[in-house]
Amino acid sequence: MATSRAPLRFAEAVSATVSESAGSGFFFDYDGTLAPIMRDPGAVFPVAGAVARLQVLARLVSKVAIVSARPAAYLRDRFSGAPQLRLFGLYGMQTVEDGRVRTDAEAELWAPVMRRVAEEAARDLPREILIEDKALIVALHYRSAPALRGAVERWSSRKAAELGLREQYGRMVVELRPPVERDKGTVVAREIETLTRAWYFGDDLSDGRAFDALRGREERDPAFMGVRVAVANTETGDELARVADFTVASPEDTPALLDHVISAFPGRPPAVGAGSRHR
Ligand SMILES: O=P(O)(O)OC[C@H]1O[C@H](O[C@H]2O[C@H](CO)[C@@H](O)[C@H](O)[C@H]2O)[C@H](O)[C@@H](O)[C@@H]1O
């Protein structure tokens, strides 16, 4: 991922978005971007104020979406307060349409294989490893036992080779998933086709593909503006921050950045401390 254009100023990015709101979209990763990182994935909820900000934003621009590795049903639950959001789960293998989860047919064919992977992981891996069975993706979490990272990665690589699966590394996690052409980059590339401005917020390795999708579109279409926002963290954040236009310090700071964007729309009250950050 290479940065090729002059640095974008936050105020310019915001005003270009406001002036073409009907062609603008906002895309968000979930864990580590809109929600804190915790040991128990099941205990995580969006940070205070995030859902409300997204709902406001969804009324102001063309499209606001969550693009996550979580199952779509999980996202539907966590973002029920923002019904206008578009939800892409399992790296785009699932979406929510009219309140119902729709799973990609090609990915669905892998359900029996992934069930077997979850069973074998439970049998083979030490019990300190948290196995998150997302039906079409098996996540192997070593946050409670970082010393077991090597063992987890070796097991995962063997299983991927044996069964023809893909691996995705993340924050103290390795995931095994079907070899279908879906990732955050393919989702974003498709969803921005009708847009002229798009922002993507992320914190992790898989979000780099979404950044690349914005960059690729910019290279083909000089009228398009992509805005990459990295949410800082010491685990996987550096790589993303290096190629981001802006960085926020933590998921808890994401709503404040959105306030600066929202307040720039006509008729919106000014954000507290507007213009003082995100340069
Ligand atoms: O695409 P995302 O929405 O960012 O999902 C990526 C993974 O997030 C979750 O794992 C991460 O957050 C957990 C909860 O804070 C944390 O315990 C774990 O160490 C992190 O890797 C989720 O559990 C995974 O399924 C997602 O793939």
From TrEMBL:
Biological process annotations from GO: trehalose biosynthetic process
GO MF annotation, one: trehalose-phosphatase activity
The reaction(s) this protein catalyses: alpha,alpha-trehalose 6-phosphate + H2O = alpha,alpha-trehalose + phosphate
Entry annotated with the keyword Cell membrane: no
Cofactor: Mg(2+)
EC class name: hydrolase
Superkingdom, natural source: Bacteria
SUPFAM superfamilies in the cross-refs: HAD-like (SSF56784)
Annotated EC: 3.1.3.12
Record's keyword terms, sorted: Hydrolase, Magnesium, Metal-binding
Recorded metabolic or biological pathway in which this protein acts: Glycan biosynthesis; trehalose biosynthesis
InterPro entries: HAD-like_sf, HAD_sf, OTSB-like, Trehalose_PPase
Pfam families membership: Trehalose_PPase (PF02358)
Function: Removes the phosphate from trehalose 6-phosphate to produce free trehalose.
Alphabetized NCBIfam families for the sequence: T6PP
Family as reported in the entry's similarity comment: Belongs to the trehalose phosphatase family.
Protein name (database record): Trehalose 6-phosphate phosphatase
